[in-house]
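pasting for ref
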Amino acid sequence: VHAVADGVVAVLLDAGTDGHILLVEHLLADHSAVYSVYWHVDHVQVQPGQPVARGQVIAVVYDQGLNSHLHWEMRTFRDGSAMFPAGTAGARGACNGRLAGVGYTWDDRADRARPDGYGYLDPEKFVADYR
């Protein structure tokens, strides 16, 4: 797992049997921030407060056998609030429904689904556009 842009590790959470959740803060030109979030990672190679460079290896995907996968998203609020409309998959968050954290960068209704709107398809461009 590589950092999508230069930033500073903001949060590292142990999610137990789901691996770890890692948040990296990316400061923008107006002094606001966006966050890249990575869930189901293991062998984390960074710690909170540590600067990271775009492309730097920060972790590996947590081995869950045939269910190994990465939840990754860009968000404008560290806790994910105000990002997704109430009642959508993103607002519910958490792939297992137990942990607040990384949700889904999609929507239950196809007409509202905009993964490109959250930088999911081109994270480098998303961060650059908001610097």
